[in-house]
Amino acid sequence: MIQRIIGVTGGIATGKTTITNYLHHHYQLTILDADLYAREALNAERLQLIQERYGSQILTKEGSLDRQRLGAIIFDDEKERRWLETLIHPYVTNRLQLAAQELFPNPVIMAIPLLFEANLQHLVTEIWVVTCTPELQQQRLCQRNNLTIIEAQQRVAAQMPLKEKIMQADIVFDNSGDLVHLWQQIDQVMAQAIALQ
CA angle, 80 as apex, 117 and 114 as ends, to 5°? Predict the structure, then answer.
């Protein structure tokens, strides 16, 4: 028996969380969130390595990681971004695999923003890509993360272009409109999946 593992990905601020929340609340699907595991990966040992690399200014007054400062470094320097990913991705991959195994044979959603960038396609049986217009993506990112347009553009540019992700997707959701339109797209895909069972 093959476990259905849906990888939900897309660009930053395209609406991945909006979709996974809907799938969880309306279809009772379990969500495995790579971002949560990435935060979990920043335990004392890895945080120490990050501090050794960037100095104590990378920490808040309370001693936790200053994510905004780290973001400013890694989104401006590909070499530094790769270093951080090498530190975190093996842990995230392992956690995703173990969590999915524990839920076998139930279907699960893996929310993996860097699915393609980290070459994690082997973890999933199908890929759903969430997209929206570049203008809307930057606008949402500025509002959500309190960024300047330049900072938003850097973060978008740090990821694989959406059009390349779309070419490798099994399903594409357009989140350029309102939520009702997005829900309709999801419901249609889920109805087809149920009909095939």
Answer: 20
